[in-house]
Write a sequence for this structure.
C-alpha cells in the first residue's frame, strides 16, 4: 500500500493547515473544486505526456524498448499526479505542481530538439 | 489531519466512480462476455454444432483455403488464413481489398468467411456477429466513430483506475471488511456489497484496468513515439516486433508458390521449439504479384508470453526471407504478458472461469457503488422527502439512470441471444438487426426508468431480465432442437451446453435479486438512531 503511506505523509505535513470550511463562500469553493478537477484531468495529462516523452529519451535501453516502457508507466504517472492534485493544500498548489515540472520538461525537450 | 486527506480521496472516489459508472458497467459487462467470445459465437451459429473437429493436416487445409481465396479475391491486398484450434473449429479466411489510391479506407474493405476445414466449402451459417459483438463493444462501443469511442472508453478507464486507488485509500479496514456482510440493513448492506465485490477481486480489477489502458496506450499516450520516431507508429511497431515492412505490390503478376509446401516447411523449421509445432495463422501479402510474401505465425504454447515466433517467405520463389525467434527482451515480454493477462489468451478452462467470475464481480462492484450513491443521497434528503417534496433532480436522474443501466443490461444482452434465434435466417443485414435489437431493448428500459424510477420498476425489470436469461435454453431447445441442452450435454459441443447452463445460472441470480428487491424494505430513517447514521456516514467518508 505505497500510495496509502505516501498519502498519509502528505496529509500530515500539509493538510494540517487546511481548514476546508474557514471563510470560503459557496461559489469560490465551487471554483476551487472545478479548478482542481481541471488540474487533474488536463494538467496531470500534460505532465504525463511530457514526462513519458523525457523518459523515452533517457531510459538506458534500445529505442523501441524505452518508448514501450515509458508508455507502460504512463498511467501510473497519471494516476499518481491525479491523487496529488486532490491531496495537496490548494488548487493553486495543484496547478503549480502540474505546470512547473511540465514547463521544465518542455524546455528540456525543446533544447534536445534544437540540438538534434 | 488524516481525515482531511481521506475526505478528499472519498470525494474523488465518489465522483470519479459516479460520473462514468454507466459506461463502465457496459464496458465491464461486454469485456466479461468476451472471455467466452468463441463459445458465444458457436452458440449463435447452431448450424455448426454438429460438425466434428477436423483431423486433417494443416497443409491440406491451407491448400483449400488458398483455392477459396483465389476464387473470391485473386487481387486482394492481403489474405489471411486462420487455422482451427480447440476454441474454434472452422477454417477462417479473411481478405482486404486493394483500394485505388486516394480512397478513404473503411471497414468495408475487410471480408471474412468460415470454411469447412475438410471440404473448403463455406459453412452455411446464419449471419451473426456472435461474440465479436461484445468484443468490439468492449472498446469500440457502437454507433460511434471508432477513435471517438476509444477516447471515451480510455477516459472512463482512467476514472476507473483513479476510483480503484482512492477506493483502497479510503478503505480503513480492508481485511476485516473482506469478511463482513450485513444483509438487509439498507445503506450498510450496499456498502458491504460494494466492498466485498471490490476487495475480493481487487488485484483483478487493478490488473484489468491498467492492462486495458495499456492496450490502447499508443492512442492515449503518443508523445514517446513522437519524440523517438517522429510520430511514425509503423516505424515503432516494425522495430518493436522486428517486422520488415510489407513490400509494395510491384504490379507484375506472378504465380504464387505452393502455400501448403510453406506450411510443411515452417513446421520442419519449428521442430524442437517449445509448444506444439503448428501454425496459428498466416498472412499472404500481395497475392499473385511478383512482390508477394507469406508470413506464418507459430501457435502459442498457451503460456503467458505468446511464442511470438514467425517466418516470412518470398511468395513466388518460396525462399525464406527472415525469421523471428522467441522474444527475449524484458520490456517487450512484460508488455506481451500484460496483454495476455487482459485478453486471457493463455487461460485454461478453470482460470478462464475465474476471470469471468471476477469480471461479473466487477460489474456488481460498479452497480452497487452506483446504487450506494443514491441510497446515501436519499438519507441526506430525508427531511425534504419526509415533508412530501420530490427528490432533487440530480438524485432522480441518477436513480433513473441506475435503473435503466443496471436492470436494463441483462435485458439488453439477453435480447441479443433471443434475436439470434428468432430473427429469420434470410433477413437482410441480419447481424446488424441482432445488434439493433440490443439497443432498442436497452433504450426502452432507459425510457421506462425515466418515466417511473422506483422499486416496482426495479422489480419488474429484474424479473424480466432474469426470466429472459432463464428461458434462453428453452428457446434454444424449441427453435434449434438439435442444439438443445440435453443433446449438447451428452454429445457436445461442450461450449454450447456451457452457454445454456451459464444462462440459467445468471437468470436464476437475477431472479433472486428481483425477489430480494421485492422483500427488503429500506429501513425507516426516523427509526434509525442518530449516532448510527453518523457512524455509517463516517465509515465511507
Amino acid at each position: 500500500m505505497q500510495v496509502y503511506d505516501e498519502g498519509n505523509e502528505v496529509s500530515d505535513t500539509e493538510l494540517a493547515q487546511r481548514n476546508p470550511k474557514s471563510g470560503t463562500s459557496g461559489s469560490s469553493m465551487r471554483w476551487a473544486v472545478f479548478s482542481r478537477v481541471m488540474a487533474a484531468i488536463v494538467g496531470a495529462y500534460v505532465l504525463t505526456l511530457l514526462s513519458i516523452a523525457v523518459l523515452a529519451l533517457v531510459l538506458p535501453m534500445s529505442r523501441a524498448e524505452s518508448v514501450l516502457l515509458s508508455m507502460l508507466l504512463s498511467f501510473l504517472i497519471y494516476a499518481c499526479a491525479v491523487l496529488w492534485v486532490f491531496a495537496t493544500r490548494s488548487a493553486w498548489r495543484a496547478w503549480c505542481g502540474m505546470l512547473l515540472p511540465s514547463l521544465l520538461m518542455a524546455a528540456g525537450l525543446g533544447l534536445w530538439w534544437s540540438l538534434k | 489531519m488524516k481525515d482531511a486527506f481521506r475526505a478528499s480521496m472519498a470525494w474523488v472516489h465518489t465522483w470519479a466512480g459516479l460520473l462514468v459508472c454507466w459506461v463502465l458497467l457496459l464496458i465491464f459487462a461486454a469485456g466479461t462476455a468476451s472471455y467466452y467470445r468463441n463459445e458465444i459465437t458457436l452458440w449463435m451459429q447452431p448450424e455448426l454444432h454438429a460438425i466434428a473437429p477436423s483431423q486433417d493436416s494443416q497443409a491440406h487445409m491451407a491448400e483449400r483455403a488458398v483455392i477459396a481465396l483465389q476464387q473470391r479475391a485473386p487481387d486482394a491486398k492481403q489474405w489471411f488464413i486462420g487455422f482451427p484450434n480447440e476454441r474454434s473449429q472452422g477454417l477462417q479466411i479473411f481478405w482486404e481489398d486493394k483500394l485505388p489510391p486516394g480512397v478513404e479506407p473503411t471497414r468495408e474493405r475487410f471480408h471474412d468467411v468460415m470454411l469447412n476445414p475438410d471440404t473448403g466449402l463455406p459453412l452455411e451459417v446464419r449471419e451473426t456477429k456472435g461474440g465479436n459483438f461484445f468484443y468490439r463493444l468492449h472498446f469500440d462501443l457502437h454507433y460511434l466513430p471508432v477513435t471517438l469511442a476509444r477516447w471515451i472508453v480510455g477516459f472512463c478507464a482512467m476514472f476507473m483506475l483513479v476510483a480503484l486507488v482512492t477506493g483502497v485509500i479510503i478503505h480503513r479496514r480492508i481485511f476485516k471488511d473482506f469478511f463482513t456482510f450485513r444483509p438487509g440493513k439498507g445503506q450498510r448492506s450496499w456498502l458491504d456489497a460494494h466492498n466485498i465485490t471490490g476487495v475480493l477481486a481487487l488485484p483483478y480489477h487493478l490488473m484489468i484496468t491498467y492492462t486495458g489502458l495499456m492496450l490502447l496506450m499508443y492512442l492515449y499516450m503518443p508523445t514517446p513515439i513522437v519524440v523517438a520516431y517522429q510520430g511514425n507508429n509503423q516505424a515503432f511497431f516494425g522495430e518493436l516486433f522486428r517486422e520488415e515492412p510489407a513490400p509494395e505490390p510491384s504490379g507484375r503478376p506472378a504465380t504464387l508458390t505452393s502455400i501448403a509446401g510453406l506450411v510443411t516447411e515452417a513446421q520442419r523449421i519449428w521442430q524442437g521449439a517449445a509448444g506444439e509445432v503448428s501454425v496459428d495463422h498466416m498472412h499472404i501479402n500481395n497475392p499473385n504479384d511478383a512482390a508477394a510474401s507469406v508470413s506464418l505465425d507459430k501457435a502459442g504454447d498457451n503460456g503467458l508470453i505468446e511464442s511470438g515466433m514467425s517466418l516470412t517467405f518470398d511468395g513466388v520463389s518460396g525462399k525464406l526471407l527472415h525469421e523471428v525467434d522467441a522474444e527475449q527482451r524484458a520490456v517487450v515480454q512484460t508488455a506481451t504478458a500484460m496483454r495476455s493477462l487482459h485478453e486471457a489468451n493463455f487461460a485454461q478452462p478453470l482460470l478462464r472461469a475465474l476471470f469471468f467470475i471476477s469480471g461479473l464481480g466487477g460489474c456488481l462492484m460498479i452497480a452497487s457503488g452506483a446504487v450506494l450513491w443514491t441510497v446515501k443521497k436519499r438519507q441526506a434528503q430525508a427531511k425534504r422527502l419526509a415533508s412530501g417534496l420530490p427528490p432533487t433532480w440530480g438524485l432522480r436522474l441518477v436513480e433513473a439512470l441506475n435503473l435503466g443501466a443496471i436492470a436494463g443490461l441483462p435485458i439488453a444482452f439477453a435480447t441479443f441471444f433471443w434475436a439470434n434465434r428468432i430473427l429469420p435466417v434470410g433477413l437482410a443485414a441480419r447481424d446488424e438487426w441482432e445488434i439493433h435489437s440490443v439497443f432498442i431493448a436497452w433504450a426502452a428500459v432507459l425510457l421506462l426508468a425515466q418515466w417511473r424510477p422506483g422499486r416496482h420498476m426495479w422489480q419488474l425489470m429484474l424479473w424480466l431480465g432474469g426470466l429472459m436469461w432463464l428461458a434462453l435454453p428453452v428457446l434454444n431447445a424449441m427453435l434449434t432442437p438439435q442444439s438443445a441442452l440435453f443433446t449438447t450435454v451428452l454429445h457436445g459441443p461442450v461450449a454450447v451446453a456451457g452457454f445454456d447452463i451459464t444462462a440459467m445460472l445468471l437468470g436464476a441470480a437475477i431472479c433472486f435479486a428481483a425477489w430480494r428487491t421485492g422483500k427488503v424494505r429500506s429501513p425507516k430513517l426516523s427509526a434509525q438512531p442518530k449516532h448510527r447514521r453518523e457512524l455509517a456516514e463516517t465509515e465511507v467518508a
Notes: Chain B is about 60% helix and 5% strand. The first strand of chain B starts at residue 78 and ends at 82.
